Sequence to fold (300 residues):
Amino acid sequence: MSAKIIDGKAFAATVREKVAGHVSRLREVHNIVPGLAVVLVGDDPASEVYVRNKGKQTLEVGMNSYEHKLPEDTPEADLLALVARLNADPAVHGILVQLPLPDHIDDEKVLNAIEPAKDVDGFHILNVGLLATGQKAMVPCTPLGCLMMLRAHHGSLSGLNAVVVGRSNIVGKPMAQLLLRDSCTVTIAHSRTKDLAAVCRGADILVAAVGRAQMIPGDWVKPGATVIDVGINRIAAPEKGEGKSRLVGDVEFGSAVQVAGAITPVPGGVGPMTIACLLANTITACCRANDLPEPSDLTA
Fold:
């Protein structure tokens, strides 16, 4: 048996195509152009690449992109002042402050300074609370992307047993909330869960988001289960040459693909969906800000 590969790259392209269609209609019918502001503090190379990709894809779907690059030593007060200006700018419908921030800046203070309706990352404490209580919220992008792929593969998720390995505020906890909303029976597990292997083997849906390279082998996977691997880990790849590395997930793909019914690869699985869902969240925020129907195919 070999699992169906869930192609996140192709799925993300479909999401971006839908976003572009909604952007076009907003412009033509309502004369509104959604705007996404991304703030980068410092010069972390990985963050710079990520922000550049976000800006490129934002423009490609027809949105306005506003990039704010600040020096590493920017005072916290200056960053908060910028966030306040973006909150007040009607042309900006989504605000994202790229993490990690420099050590002298309080991440939580900055994230919670973003207007909740413009919090397209879904990290504001109000959005966290709304999601947890089943109310309308801005949903974190990575869990939203995972949910979209699961719905596309399964149709209804109702009654399925889902195990989320990982309890982070960014992925694990919101992923569990979204699965609960779709009527799954949900277990949140983690590295200290007793007999984690047995817990994983009971899952119809297994979401790996623990941040440990290849932690979950194939014999932890229930035959026919759907495996969503959120992990992005870099490990040594001596077969490619001295000092070379490669990306792997939290699941040992080679063994899991022989057991699962469907699985996301790393790279090319969940990763591409994160930016696509950021764009989807910006459309949702824009529609809500203008009292327009939000796109049902791009929300949770």
Residues 8-30 form the longest helix (23 residues). The chain has a mean pLDDT of 96.
